[in-house]
Amino acid sequence: xxxVTAKDLNTAIDDGRLAYxxxxxxxxxxxxxxxxxxxxxxxxxxxxxxxxxxxxxxHVFDELTPxxxxxxxxxxxxxxxxxxxxxxxxxxxxxxxxxxxxxVAKxxxxxxSPxxxxxxxxxxxxxxxxxxxxxxxEFVHVYPDETAGSAIDRIKERGRDAETIYTIPxxxxxxxxxxxxxxxxxxxxxxxxxxxxxxKSPIYAYASEDAESTAQRCIDRSLMxxxxxxxxxxxxxxxxxxDAAEVVAAARDEDEARAGAREVLKTPYLxxxxxxxxxxxxxxxxxxxxxxxxxxxxxxxxxxxxEQRVALALFIPLLTGIGGNTGSQAAxxxxxxxxxxxxxxxxxxxxxxxxxxxxxTMGAALGIVGFAVASAVYGxxxxxVIGTTIISVCTMAATVGGLMPLLAKTVRVDPxxxxxxxxxxxxxATGLIVYFxxxxxxxxx
Length: 445
Prior knowledge:
Elements: H1 6-14, H2 18-26, H3 30-38, H4 42-50, H5 54-63, H6 66-76, H7 78-86, H8 90-97, H9 102-111, H10 114-124, H11 131-134, H12 148-158, E1 167-171, E2 177-182, H13 183-188, E3 205-206, H14 211-220, E4 225-229, E5 235-240, H15 241-259, H16 274-301, H17 303-308, H18 311-314, H19 316-339, H20 348-378, H21 380-410, H22 420-443
């Protein structure tokens, strides 16, 4: 039989077949059950979650998105989800708390056991967006001067509460990170062998570093876990590969949304409210509307030029489209290179040099075509204006589009904020200025 779907459960709830709902959800793996619940609207999701057996509900709750978890807490009440909240990993718990009203968050924190409250406080002590906020403070460490047998005993004793045990941080007795050891090496070694013999140089991150870039580094190097330390290199926690993948996926969704001039929806589209969808889009539309006024002002300034040579107006959509697309292509390419650490703000001069040459090359190719077509239809002088403008606009747009993400990174702003529509509008205004200045020079008007 095919697996149950959100639509099946919605129908069953409408028919009052709650036993069927609980049975079908319990038969699914927690990740699959969470995916089904995420696709349901809040009311039916709450009912479906209520009929889950307690042990299943705890595991399913942990797999829900933070937005779905927050919605459940609001509809169920904190007391009903306190057990599931207590059993979440501290980093996931911190992410959920960011979604909740302060009074609800405080109530849930009070429901934690002292040990879990302390672990969550460690994560919450770091700014949002830092890897310290996404690390897990639940790990097992070993010492370089102890035997493999002693290390294995500690792993067995504490491993159930740890986020992962496959990569083991090695610390000195002042808790400073000295390396990492593989569980495989420790298990296969003689029990009296010192851990130091299997300790490798660590790839680690400082807790204050950006979560996205750290997570990408963890993935690129195929690390099962990356130690996270403070400025004195004392071990604070670990970032696991699955958590790193979640961070990168969330950042990718955010970048794609902002490139389309909107924010990420925290609930599935069909279940998102009209107000939520409007909020996700309207702010960027205001920004773009204000920036588009620049284009109107430019046209107003050169109104007299257009009156003398009406044919110039026919090419405005072509030139603004080429400029906006060229700038957006450059910005997208450099933003991706920043995310994968192929470039840094220190490479601004090299990026500018490369984009000038790329823009000049593309502009020359397009400019020749534009010159030929415009000359054939409107004469040599108009063709010269169009060809020269295309070369200039492509070069300028590629350079500006390539440098804007680097500027954003320098001032600690998300490069995705300089989204495709924003750069397009900027290039429209400056491209028109270039266009009319060239036209006045060539045509003598």
